[in-house]
Amino acid sequence: MLIAQTILIDEAEIEERFIRASGPGGQHVNKTESAVQLRFDLAANTTLPDAAKRRLVRLAGSRMTKDGSLVLKADSHRERERNRSDARDRLRKLIEQALIAPKPRKKARPSLASIKRVKAAKAQKSQVKSRRRKPGSED
């Protein structure tokens, strides 16, 4: 499965099991196995960079197993092939999202003018509050 121009996921790393779906389908749903449980062995993968693997683990959350596999379940469609392509698309999107490195945070510092404005506003507020006191009451 081709993810990006440089990354190709081997089909041997993807395991698909077909299970009975719990969604719509009437009596037919009890007889057919149209839902797909896709299992991607991330621990055995060698094509993804280590940083992308770490981001993928964080993105997957509870869908990651202890042995390093990503498990996706697709059962929103009645047809097996549509569920299969849905699961593969979701895997592709997750991996593409993990490949994007976050931008490094730049420390922001308020400008000198904004600091002066804040201090001036604070002094003004202090003056307004001090005028509310009764005359002659010193602390």
UniProtKB/TrEMBL annotation:
PROSITE patterns: RF_PROK_I (PS00745). Residues 70-89, 97-139 are annotated as: Disordered. Residues 74-89 have a biased composition (Basic and acidic residues). GO terms for biological process: rescue of stalled ribosome. GO terms for molecular function: peptidyl-tRNA hydrolase activity; ribosome binding; translation release factor activity. Residues 116-139 have a biased composition (Basic residues). Residues 20-36 form the Prokaryotic-type class I peptide chain release factors domain. Coiled coil: none annotated. This is Class I peptide chain release factor. It comes from Maricaulis maris (strain MCS10) (Caulobacter maris).
